[in-house]
Amino acid sequence: MTPQELDARIVRYGDLVPCKTAFIDAHTPGSDQKENFTIIGGGVSESPDQHVHIKDTPGFNIGAAGQPPKCRNSLHSHRTAEVFFVLKGRWRFFWGRWGTAGEVVLEEGDIFNIPTGIFRGFENIGTDYGMIMAILGGDDAGGGVIWAPQVIEDARDHGLVLAETGRLYDTKKGEALPDGVSPMPLLTDEELKTYPEPAAADVIPGFVARYWDLMALAAGEPARVIGPDAVLKDRPGFEVDFITRGSIPEDATTTDRHEVLMPVRGHWKLTVDGVATVLNPGDTCAVPPGSARSLAPAMTGEASLYRIRNTDDPAGATKAG
């Protein structure tokens, strides 16, 4: 691998290209300041304006959401896994048909494997611009977003119409649905009954892992975060490990699967096939199978990162309840 080839597999935090019109709530007050980022794979954006940094998918997608204080992402659901960890800020995640079934507050480094089949939303409750990083199951990220009916209705009142094809049309710009294309239908009352309303006590213990707990678990070896034998037991089509300076895998490990490295704290020296670089918090690096890879903290002090690897399990996630 040449230095140029390695650079092409790294998306730097400072190079992230935001999209402010990615989803149906882009004009809705309270959600109209959010920025969405598609880092690896096509993601679930509904806008042709969404920039994709690395198009090849390793069996899952990587994205991010950046939001100023008090900005929220509207209630939606996915057919496959949606996992978030907090890179910057303080975030409230809430769920249920109206967002009132339960909630949890996540701090920097915390991770949430949101159960499939429930409506979920999130908001930045910190005092500064915040960023959460996302892992979405499957190469096609589950075929898109399923919105709570009130989200579609609110969006229409503010000029955005979602077509049955999954593409957005902005009536404020004079756009209209093409001939023969209908608006996305609202979920019926019968369909809505199939979406669970789990309480926080049924979600938090099995779906949330705290940063400082993982720091303690990773004192001698990588902490298994998501997987059949992990803190959050699941088979969503990928597995997640948490690595600190005290649990670095042995040098020159040859990867047998796709591996994505996402630093949370500190600076990491990464060497792939003899080519060295430094990864910083917010960077995302996709290491291909068959590569000889080694990791080491580049500086003293706290250092941690999440490692995501594909598995042979079908894309999905555990349901709550």
Descriptive account of the structure:
It contains 5 helices and 25 strands. It is globular and about 55 Å long. The protein starts with a helix and ends in an 11-residue tail after the last strand. Strand 7 (91-95) and strand 8 form a beta hairpin. By secondary structure, it is mainly β. The chain has a 7-stranded mixed sheet. The mean pLDDT is 92. It folds into 2 domains: 3-208, Jelly Rolls, CATH 2.60.120.10; 212-310, Jelly Rolls (Sandwich).
Average pLDDT, all residues:
92
Helicity level? 10-25%
The secondary-structure element order is: HEEEEEEEEEEEEHEEHHEHEEEEEEEEEE
Strand content: 35-45%
Counting DSSP H or I runs of 4 or more residues, the number of helices is 5
Question: Span between N and C termini?
Answer: 47 Å
Q: Could you give a short account of the major beta sheet?
A: 7 strands, mixed
How large is the radius of gyration? 19 Å
**Lateral strand order in the biggest sheet:** 1-23-20-25-18-16-17
Number of domains: 2
Please identify, by name, the CATH architecture of the largest domain: Sandwich
- CATH topology name of the largest domain, in short, is Jelly Rolls
- What would CATH call the homologous superfamily of the largest domain? Jelly Rolls
Question: Which stretches of 5+ consecutive residues score pLDDT under 50?
Answer: none
Organism: Oceaniradius stylonematis
GO molecular function, one term: metal ion binding
Protein name: Cupin domain-containing protein
Pfam family, one: Cupin_2
